[in-house]
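Budget justification, computational time. The allocation requested in the original proposal was used primarily to generate structure tokens for proteins on the priority list. As evidence of use, we reproduce two of the resulting records. The first is shown immediately below.
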Amino acid sequence: PGARADIFVYVDRHGVMHFTNTPTSDRYRVYLRETPKRPPPSKALHDQSGYDDVILEAAQRHGIAFSLLKALIHVESYFNPKAVSKKGALGLCQIMPQNLQFLNINDPFDPWENIMGGARYLQLMLDRFGGELHLALAAYNAGPSMVEKYSAIPPFPETQQYVQKVLKYQRVYKPS
């Protein structure tokens, strides 16, 4: 249970109503009880296998491991096809709006289009960085120019954690 903001009142002998959220005596009675709201599931994990057929198709089409693409989607959007990041990235693979046209995505919230575009972009990053998975993932997260600037994973905690998370989930999704 979290904090609550009930409102209490008491009426003094002159008829003046005194309101507070922290009653100081037993003269106060509940005037308005706050109804707690469930917080929105901002990072709720959606159906993890609901897109496996599309992920498999995209992985095969673009020559990427199924487990890698599924891990990327897990970390990017937690399988939420309607995800929008603080920076404006859209959909399952969190495609930036400026890349939509380049990746042939008309509707970034269409799972098929988004996954196909995300797989294509990841393959482009793998090609650009000579198949170096760590660098390709860093480029997917921070942009290829940042990886080129540092000739390594950029020194941003978010990007470094991102690469590690994707690699961790890739191991989880690898077939035994």
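The second record produced under the same allocation is shown here.
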Amino acid sequence: SMVILAALPCVLAGVYFFGLRVLLMIMVSYAAGGLVEVIFAVLRKEEINEGFLVTGLLFPLILPPALPLWLVGIGSAFGVFVGKELFGGTGRNLFNPALVGRCFLALSYPAAFAGTWVKPGTGLWGRLFTYVGPSTADALTTATPLVLAKNGVISPLADLYIGRVAGCVGETSVVAILLGGLFLIAVGVANWRTVIAALGSFGILAAVLGML
């Protein structure tokens, strides 16, 4: 429950910048992955584990905002099936089911991933309704954020911090991510030492490799 609450700022930021289609992605993720969860619960004669509520919410947040909904469903079902249920269910899985689903989609449908990055909408109406239909998304296809950065196209620092940049649904807003992270630390779900160690090691390694 705490993790779901912590993810809500990213969900709201995703809806604000990329439109109401984000809510459809979440619904499809829950429906497809939840079906797999229910099937295995019936076969094992066990109760449905509420841990899927976290996976079903996090999965759309790590996807391009204009990814076709049928791919969202396939990725969610694959992630739950291969990433968790084949290992015995919640607590026995070796990998994060959401990341397993994303890796599967990125490797199996690279063209879809490369062509579904879109810039945030402009104005409240544009932000909420611009990316609802796939035809609209096709018209707004742009280079991936990494390609833009490689070519020297760097967004203003304020845009990077607030989230007015292209990227996955829930990854662009630093403010939203920090709010969720600080909440998890405050309620004791996350250990600040783990967070500092992960971010610190990444920062140091990136700096050293950059200088080399």
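A brief technical remark on that second record: Residues 132-140 have pLDDT under 50 and may be disordered.
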